[in-house]
């Protein structure tokens, strides 16, 4: 019951934030693709810049938006805080001022925003507010760190390097296949897999459900429905995602739907198998969280999921519904096969311990200077 009301509360917060964001932008005379500080902004030389500080300008943050990109930034932030960094996040609107050591500012906090940017060494960003952040970094004369989560950023990066000197734009790629894709553009970069600490997601599972997390079109909401219809004896769980329309069919008796939740461990505690029939997936955080508990993952073989899961993944094309049914059935009926895959999952999750990559990232950050 507590879980139910907590999830409802989070959902209402998300709706409220989405509704009020456009109002906040208008009220504060902020244009989405313009800098968040005035064009005549001057860096106050009397204010010492904290060499261990970063300010993110982004569209939303956890635990309100529980999407992979936001959790990646938060995991990076937590690591940086442990290393002595001051971490700020600027978003259009937010119900709290601090979250797990991160200082959160909203667009209403105009004077405070200029103050934290003055003191920050880096500006960080991703997704929707990247242009705003690049223009802000240019005016403030700060290096910008952009997290590249997907394969569609080339046109935007071409625009950014016309606005701001290429030497001051630094990229964090979420995988090596994404790095390879963008290498010809010649930006300074490092690779950080979306950090998942396996100990945080290691749970005892009752193996009740075959689970899909995020029921939108790309992630496989319709595929879940098709599979469930062919396997009426199997219990399926569909967890709503934090973005895009969710495809659900509540008339199917063997699918249980739950709302999006920041308490994702409670989902894994009920999960026997994870389904990831994503048509597009550049990494697959859910997969890595699941394998931390030895939960097998059946995945469409995208570049990202193949790099993330490697030898522990079971790969079936998202168009092959029969193949998904057969693979689920094998895992459900062949306990030796399940155990073998589960052991491989645990091994792979330990290989992905994020601390070594995060340490390299922090060393990389310390070498970056404004040019």
Describe the structure.
The protein has two domains: 17-195 and 356-367, 3-Layer(aba) Sandwich (Rossmann fold), CATH 3.40.50.2000; 198-351, 3-Layer(aba) Sandwich (Rossmann fold), CATH 3.40.50. The longest helix is centred in the N-terminal third of the chain and has 26 residues, at 2-27. The chain starts with a helix and ends with a helix. It has an eight-stranded mixed β-sheet with strand order 3-4-2-1-5-6-7-8, sandwiched between helices. Strands 11-10-9-12-13-14 form a six-stranded parallel β-sheet, sandwiched between helices. Helix content is 40%, strand content 18%. The chain is of the alpha/beta class and 371 residues long. Helix 9 (285-291) packs across helix 12. Strand 9, helix 7 (221-230) and strand 10 (236-239) form a beta-alpha-beta unit.
Widest beta sheet: strand line-up: 3-4-2-1-5-6-7-8
SSE series: HEHEEEHEHEHEHEEHEEHEHEHEHHH
The CATH homologous superfamily of the largest domain? Glycogen Phosphorylase B
- Using the coordinates shown, work out and report the CATH topology of the largest domain: Rossmann fold
Distance between the termini: 55 Å
**Helix count?**
13
Radius of gyration using CA atoms only: 21 Å
* Sequence stretches where pLDDT stays below 50 over 5 or more residues: 1-14, 16-29
Explain briefly what this protein structure is.
One of its GO terms (molecular function) is glycosyltransferase activity. With 371 residues, the protein is α/β, with parallel strands linked by helices. The chain has helices at 2-27, 68-82, 110-119, 130-140, 154-163, 176-182, 221-230, 265-268, 285-291, 303-309, 321-333, 335-351, 355-367, and strands at residues 50-57, 86-91, 98-99, 102-106, 120-125, 144-148, 169-173, 188-191, 209-213, 236-239, 255-258, 271-276, 297-299, 314-315.
């Amino acid at each position: 019951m507590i879980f139910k009301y907590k999830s409802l509360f989070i959902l209402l917060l998300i709706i409220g934030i989405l509704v009020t964001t456009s109002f906040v932008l208008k009220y504060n005379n902020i244009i989405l693709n313009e800098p968040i500080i005035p064009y005549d902004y001057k860096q106050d030389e009397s204010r010492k810049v904290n060499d261990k500080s970063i300010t993110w300008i982004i569209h939303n943050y956890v635990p309100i938006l529980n999407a992979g990109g936001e959790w990646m930034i938060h995991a990076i932030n937590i690591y940086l805080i442990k290393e002595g960094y001051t971490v700020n996040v600027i978003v259009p609107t937010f119900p709290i001022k601090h979250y797990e050591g991160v200082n959160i500012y909203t667009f209403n906090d105009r004077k405070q925003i200029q103050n934290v940017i003055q003191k920050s060494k880096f500006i960080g960003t991703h997704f929707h507010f990247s242009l705003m952040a690049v223009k802000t970094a240019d005016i403030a004369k700060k290096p910008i760190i952009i997290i590249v989560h997907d394969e569609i950023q080339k046109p935007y990066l071409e625009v950014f390097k016309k606005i701001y000197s290429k030497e001051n734009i630094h990229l964090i790629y979420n995988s090596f296949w994404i790095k390879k894709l963008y290498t010809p553009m010649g930006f300074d970069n490092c690779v950080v897999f979306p950090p998942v600490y396996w100990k945080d997601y290691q749970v005892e599972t009752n193996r009740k459900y075959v689970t899909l997390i995020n029921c939108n079109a790309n992630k496989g909401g319709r595929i879940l429905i098709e599979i469930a219809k062919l396997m009426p004896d199997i219990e399926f769980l569909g967890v709503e995602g934090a973005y895009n329309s969710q495809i659900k069919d509540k008339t199917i008796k063997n699918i249980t739907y739950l709302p999006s939740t920041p308490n994702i461990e409670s989902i894994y505690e009920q999960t026997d198998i994870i389904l990831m029939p994503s048509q597009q997936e550049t990494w697959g955080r859910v997969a890595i969280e699941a394998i931390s508990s030895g939960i097998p993952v059946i995945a469409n073989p995208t570049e990202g999921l193949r790099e993330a899961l490697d030898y522990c993944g079971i790969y079936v094309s998202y168009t092959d519904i029969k193949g998904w049914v057969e693979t689920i059935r094998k895992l459900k009926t062949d306990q030796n096969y399940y155990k073998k895959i589960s052991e491989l999952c645990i091994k792979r999750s330990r290989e992905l311990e994020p601390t070594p990559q995060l340490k390299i990232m922090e060393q990389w950050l310390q070498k970056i200077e404004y040019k």
